[in-house]
């Protein structure tokens, strides 16, 4: 018996049925553009909303993202990647008080969606680069942990607001898969 949890079991089913995972839905709007439109709608929201592609390259972000995460527009275009920022930036460790758990979760979620990445050469190059940049990434990636996109709480050290806890919600629709996803943050209501 493999003793897999629910996320790992679904991941194995996806691997076994890779042909089905590679099919895209024909949409009237390309995935990246749909993600940009969703982020634009969120501009007045005072919480971070960003879109990334399957390689974790940032496609768009609202103004609040820059105050909770980083001023991504000031980074060189090839460094506007959420995974790279999380594993290599001192700012990421300062902004996320639960950095280790947060990043371990992101790595496990990326490992799960990586089965849908058509450009295997780019994936292997990214993983090799990230392993050089971060021993923690290397250990987490090599652990083969996989997780679905579940909502979860994320704490931030906001430069003006202090410690803020938000709920992270990943929107990953069939029209955007496997190309893009949008991450929303909302206040935690108790």
UniProtKB/TrEMBL annotation:
Residues 46-186 form the MmyB-like transcription regulator ligand binding domain. PANTHER family: BLL4672 PROTEIN, BLL4672 PROTEIN-RELATED. It comes from the Bacteria. It comes from Solicola gregarius. This is MmyB-like transcription regulator ligand binding domain-containing protein. InterPro entries: MLTR_LBD (IPR041413). Gene3D superfamilies: 3.30.450.180.
